[in-house]
User: Fold Glycosyltransferase from Vreelandella titanicae.
Amino acid sequence: MHILTTVFFNAPSGGLHENVLASSCFMLDKGHSITVVCKKGVFASRLKEHGIKVIESDFFIPSFSETLQLVKEIHDVEPISLVHAHPFLSRQFGMLVAEFFDIPFVLTMHGRYLDSVPEIINKIDAVFAVSEGIRQHIIKEGDISSPQKIHVIPNTPDDSLFKPLNIRENESQVVTISLVTRLDDDKSFIIDIFYQAVKYASEKYDGIINWKIVGAGTLENDVKNHLSVISGHNKVDFLGWLEGEALRDAYQFSDAVIAPGRCVLEALSCRVPAIALGSKGYVGLVGPETWQEAVFTNFGGLGDKAESYKDGSIQNDLDILMQSSEVRKKHGDFGLKIAKSFFNHREAHLKLLDYYLLVQDSYALRKERRTLPSDTLELRIKELLVERPTVDSVSLCFSCDSVNDLSFAWYLICNDVVINKEMYKKDPVYHIFIPGPGHYKIRCFVKDEKGNKISFIGANFNIDNAEWLRFNLNLNLKYVDWLNSSNNSMDYFIGLHSYIRSVKPISIVEFGQGESTLIIAEALRQNGFGKLISIQHSQCFVDEMLLALAAENLTAWVELRVGELKPFLIDHVNDKIDEKKSVFYSKELMSNLESIGLIVVDDSLSSTCQFTLYPILPMLLDYLADQAQVWMVKAARREEKNICEFWSEFYEFDLEYSTAVKGLGILRSR
Assistant:
């Protein structure tokens, strides 16, 4: 038998990968041929090292035709008997292959998603759920019309590798507890609950736990930084992603493990007690009260994350583990029995092989044949060309068979929020301008003349703040680098520039000079009109800014005013006037001002008196334009925040604190 396995994944390693590798190696040992379609990378290399044929694919729908041709070349030499797919894009491609070659199709479901199974169940010969709980979830939530097609084949550890140490001596008083998981966004629930355990341990078991982090991922640096703050005197070691004997050793030399799914089973097979903490739910310390739930849910594969988590659970389980080595040994012995009773590696794969053979034989006896229509939508798409001619624009263009019979729609998604929709039309080209920095995706929709539809992510890219500023500011590189190294928030610079470009104020007054002076001047130049009056009390700062403005040809857009601070005799909120007299700029320094659309305050004046900046609004109030705004840059500080609140109360301005820019207070005239 020649089995084609299709598996799509985002992370380079994980339980899914180990499941595919284990089943592939088992079938190979039984004399069957295996070909795996997967991404290029570490996993593909591991498969090849075991003698497994690999077709590398990015599972990009426009490349399905090309990948199918590679499968055909292998099929022509050694006919494929059956397709075993894993979810999502690999399921889509696997179904195409099965229909193209008229062969059986089976699917493994690893979690609580449905992946269109209810709609396509009649095209699937068998579905394998990794636990009874997941099987029931699919049947119930999907309202499956053929529940008899859904079977349970558990994800099992390799018990020839993951097994107990015959002798394990640990005379140390330090207890080693390992977290074994990927450190990615989809594991954030696991990481958050683990943080609770670490913080609790720093208070109750400080200095007697050694945390070991076995895993890697996009959140690794964040996890390191947070653990350094909350771990107290308990040591934290990061071991990275481990496989094979190195992973086994990490289990065997741990006193306990916190992990999801397959990793729990590997720990239990090594007779190490484990807290089952999955990406969807918390089961807890695997023991007499929890083992049935653990088996049922695939050790945390079901649940509603924080909503179903009972506060204090991991702390209670940690207390049990910390009672004594004897308690840990009893839980380890109990866990080993569970692994041997329900998750026998050989039995599970023999069962899978039996299903393969039965599905193959039953398919051969069926009268109905599986065919792939010649006009299948996925195969009509030949290419998607993606171009970014500028930082703030992107273009996508489809190349398709019979393109005039197709319609196309597009969603622009920024930071997981749809910000633009273009509905179905005949044009296969999409061009759009990008509004600002962020993580962008473009979801493409294609519809044929019969109403069949497919959708997929056609473009995926990031624009960081520095890149966006470089593009939007026509400034010398020296000064852009100055902005990048500034202590001020890059988000603030972007917000300031965007606001001026959109609102187009005639006049802007700034107190304090620096990076924002260049930003404002450049925005005014791009608008083609307007003036910045920048007020400063230090001639040294003014001279430096004059040089910067001249170097950027921005001098014409800025009027720099410098003056000494003088006694301020008008009403003031300074209630410590006996300690420090109220001072501020003279009224003459603010002459000839009108239609002020924006006031930017980024100057503490070195706290020359209490609430030094308070006079700004009363002195400029009569010169404000309609809908004017005041931006207090350092509003996170107590004095500046108090001034904002005084202004809001006394002069009837609406006050809010920016959620995008830390420390920015914005006042709007009513």
Observations:
- The chain has four domains: 2-156+346-365, 175-341, 377-463, 468-669.
- Residues 468-669 form a domain with the Rossmann fold fold (CATH 3.40.50.150).
- The mean pLDDT is 91.
- The CA atoms of residues 482 and 515 lie 8 Å apart.
